[in-house]
Specification:
eight-stranded parallel barrel; tRNA binding; flavin adenine dinucleotide binding; Non-ribosomal Peptide Synthetase Peptidyl Carrier Protein, Chain A; two-stranded antiparallel ribbon; NADP
């Protein structure tokens, strides 16, 4: 089963979702290793303003390992002109092979500027951004990721899907939640099926509540979507991509990873090491890794004091020593599967003043509407 993104064949049809502060080069490396290099692995969010201004952090984030093919960048922007400049820069300087546009982020710092999941409500602004991106992309495929809408009263995904097709977008990923839901409740897979019916011309990818390889297979079967985008389900479980390859290639005969704590500890140390090498500072790498500790150790029998110590380790030696003190022979626990990461429920979406007054207004919100930093 193959997903076609422009000239790129993605087999199996599995994509790592861009996640701020998570899907940097080290994490993508781990996921690719477990998948045998199969699938598509997207960078964390890159803001177009920061890219055009060559912000130092942003230039680090867009660095790809020589083995990453295709190189996939997700861009965030609210100003069509700036988005166009960023895409042209990527093309002219050969920075990536695929560009994804973020219209799905629900966090307040993004939506209050009219970006992320707030933006598709402004149909003409969305069209202008897509037109600038596709028009400047040359031969690079441009895709987009979005949510159902702002809230249940302001659903936008079907209109946005038709606009995307008309403007030459190559594929669309839909997270089956509104911005108001954030990451709470249950993803609406029926919306993914409706989008697939509405835009049969291009691939539609489903996102939301894929916690296992079986969930991915079931989503494709139930919705008719062309591929899946996996986000929170792989937090602390980069080997999920190996499971996904097995599920799509071996079908009912697939064997899934159930690592012992000893095996998980090895992955944890490698992840922290890769972060240190990428940041060119071991201590910074281990500190950055701290946020992953709870995800990796979920479900295992580890005392609260040991968990606290793991979450404040500052060197690879310290992290390794603390891990060695655990009962590493523990098998994979049943409680380690299922939802992980953020699970916040409904929230009021922070929007610019008057944002909902006119869905066809094309104005960008203020001179500072573009964020000036990338990632988390």
């Amino acid at each position: 089963m193959t997903l076609q993104i422009g000239p790129h064949s993605v087999q199996p049809p599995v994509v790592l979702a861009p996640m701020a502060g998570i899907t940097n080069a080290p994490f993508r490396t781990l996921c690719r290793e477990f998948s045998g290099g199969k699938g598509l692995f997207v960078s964390e969010m890159i803001t177009t303003r920061a890219l055009v201004e060559r912000d130092a952090k942003t230039m680090r984030l867009i660095h790809f390992d020589g083995t990453e093919k295709p190189r996939s960048i997700q861009l965030y922007g609210v100003d069509p002109v700036t988005v166009g400049k960023a895409v042209r820069m990527i093309v002219d300087e050969d920075l990536a092979d695929h560009i994804d546009l973020n219209f799905g982020c629900p966090v307040p710092k993004v939506t209050r500027k009219g970006g992320g999941s707030a933006l598709p409500y402004k149909r003409n602004l969305l069209r202008s951004i897509l037109r600038e991106a596709v028009g400047n992309a040359g031969s690079l495929p441009v895709t987009m990721k979005m949510r159902k809408g702002i809230d249940d009263e302001h659903i936008t995904f079907l209109d946005a899907g038709r606009i995307a097709v008309e403007e030459g977008v190559t594929a669309i990923a839909l997270h089956g939640r509104t911005a108001a839901q954030h990451y709470g409740g249950t993803a609406d897979w029926e919306a993914i099926a409706r989008l697939k019916e509405a835009v049969p011309e291009i691939p539609v990818l489903g996102n939301g509540d894929i916690w296992s390889a079986d969930d991915a297979v079931r989503m494709m079967r139930e919705t008719g979507c062309d591929g899946v985008v996996v986000g929170r389900g792989c937090l602390g479980r980069p080997w999920l991509f190996g499971d996904l390859v097995a599920a799509f290639e071996d079908g009912g005969d697939a064997t899934y990873a159930q690592p012992s704590l000893r095996e998980v500890a090895r992955v944890m140390l490698r992840h922290a090491q890769l972060l240190g090498e990428w940041l060119e500072n071991e201590e910074r790498g281990v500190i950055d890794f701290r946020k992953h500790v709870a995800w990796y150790t979920k479900g295992f029998s580890i005392g609260s004091e040991a968990r606290k110590k793991l979450a404040i380790a500052s060197s690879l030696d310290e992290l390794g020593a603390l891990l060695s003190e655990l009962d590493l022979d523990q098998p994979w626990p049943a409680g380690a599967d299922g939802p992980r990461g953020r699970t916040s429920g409904r929230n009021k979406v922070v929007l610019p003043d008057g944002w909902l007054d006119d869905p066809y207004d094309c104005a960008v919100v203020g001179a500072d509407a573009e964020l000036d930093t990338s990632g988390g």
